Amino acid sequence: MEKNSEKNLFSRRAFLGTTAVAAAGITIVPSHAVAGLGHVAPSDKLNIVGVGVGGMGFANLKNLESQNIIGLCDVDWKYTAGNGVFDRYPNAKKYKDWRKMYDELGKSIDGVVVATADHTHAIIAATAITMGKHVYVQKPLTHSVYESRLLTKLAAKYKVATQMGNQGSSGEGVNLTTEWLANGEIGEVTKVEAFTDRPIWPQGLNTPERGDWVPETLDWDLFVGPAKMRPYNSLYHPWNWRGWWDYGTGALGDMACHILHPVFVGLELGYPIHAQGNSSLLLNDCAPVSQSVKLTFPARAPKRAWKGAKKGAALPQVDVYWYDGGIKPMLPDNWPAGKNPNDSGGGAIFHGTKDKLICGCYGVNPWLLSGRVPEAPKFRRRIDKATGGGHEMDWVRACKETPENRVETASNFSEAGPFNEMVVMGVLAVRLQSLNKVLDWNGEKMEFTNLSDTEEIKTVIKDGFEIHDGHPSFKKTWTDPVPAKAFAAELIKHTYREPWKLPDMPA
């Protein structure tokens, strides 16, 4: 380990570790250096490990190569080796089980990048946080509402630097959208419509009736992790896991973290109070081909001054609509002929009392339907090359600052946690749609308040549609009815398969 100078004899871990922060009491990167991009701290580089490095995790590590990549963990070494990550970091130790990596490298690890299937994000990140490690977690942050709340509270308790991998949150589109809204450019907003062109993987599939042989290079038990065990099938892994409820969150979880972020931040949203979901055929195991969701957020006190708003006035109640699977909102009046609302994979339309604001996925290219170009005061912190590595390097900058002087990242867990609850609330609404009611939600208690003890719910196990001699049959196989309260509670807080266990929720 290198020393900085005679004036600074603190070790790297005295600066970076959470247990010694109080003793160090200084920042490596000055708080006025708000971006900190490309800066190598004089103390040392971060020691970073990746969990899930076969896909997006590899892309994240490439953006972190100014630091030390010391460990690589993935359950599928064929898929991983095929992308070249092992060759690119030959000095990094290789693992299939992240627990073993934590045990062996724990004392050397400064930061963890988590890019596994959605259902394992929480346990990998939560364990790292309790070890005092900084964490970067791919979107969606977690698989459930409870897991999002847990990571939010753990990050606050252990005072680590955090970031969700929705790169657009650091981008100029989100900055401008937020600033235009606060400047009253479109007036009061009571409705937002958002959509994506995903999924680009199969959804609406029947559960495989037989398993496949598990490839020798894959540890299926580790992939399944805390979810219920089921036979391996190539329909689940690699990559296609996003469409299966046990492992992914469908197109909504994949893309809403990008598309709805400017909505959540720009309108200063918190927990919704009502939720409704609708979709094409809803199956028990696989996400539907297309979905629509309506989330209602209450009137709320603004955190900053909004131009044109009366002093002490609340921001109005707002309905947020989501569409995926090829469904898009109807275009508003005076829409430019031939202009595609899909920009980079989706978009959002803010309906204001004075104008309409439109932006693409990641909040890119915001514009007003009137054609005006706003000149609003800039109050958001700028990050250079946000989607080209700046988002990851801003997390590195935050890791190298003490908690007392840290400038938080654009999507740190105090923001990303509640925002992700909004996203997975959409999943809840879709999976509870057969109750045929608006669901009332108590965000603080994480529970629906209008489910009775007598309500039951059942879901289609198999779509038995067939054609014989030109004649269709529409036989469906259903689950047995189960209490709606218990079903919803399991979706809110999953029961983990033994021996997997989350840390306790901080008070």
Brief summary of the model shown:
The protein is α/β, with parallel strands linked by helices.
Structure description:
48% of the residues are buried. Helices cover 25% and strands 19% of the residues. Strands 13-12-11-7-10-9-8-14-15 form a 9-stranded mixed beta sheet. It has a 6-stranded parallel beta sheet with strand order 3-2-1-4-5-6, with helices on both faces. Strands 16-19 form a two-stranded antiparallel ribbon. It is built from 15 helices and 19 strands. It folds into 2 domains: 12-167 and 385-413, NAD(P)-binding Rossmann-like Domain (Rossmann fold, 3-Layer(aba) Sandwich), CATH 3.40.50.720; 172-213 and 224-381 and 420-442, Dihydrodipicolinate Reductase, domain 2. Helix 8 (145-158) runs antiparallel to helix 14. The chain has 507 residues and is an alpha/beta fold.
Q: What descriptive keywords fit this protein?
A:
single chain; alpha/beta; Rossmann fold; Dihydrodipicolinate Reductase, domain 2; 2 domains; 9-stranded mixed sheet
**Which outline best applies?**
globular
**Strand-residue proportion:** 15-25%
**Uncertain residue ranges:** 1-42
- Helical region count? 15
- Output the CATH class name of the largest domain: Alpha Beta
Task: Kindly identify the CATH topology of the largest domain.
Answer: Dihydrodipicolinate Reductase, domain 2
**Head-to-tail CA distance between termini:** 37 Å
Q: If strands are numbered along the chain, what order do they take across the biggest sheet?
A: 13-12-11-7-10-9-8-14-15
Which structural class best describes the helix and strand composition? alpha/beta
Architecture of the largest domain, according to CATH?
2-Layer Sandwich
Q: Number of folding domains?
A: 2
Q: Look at the structure and give the mean pLDDT.
A: 91
Helix content class: 25-40%
The Rg value, from CA coordinates, equals 23 Å
Number of strands: 19
Largest sheet: 9 strands, mixed
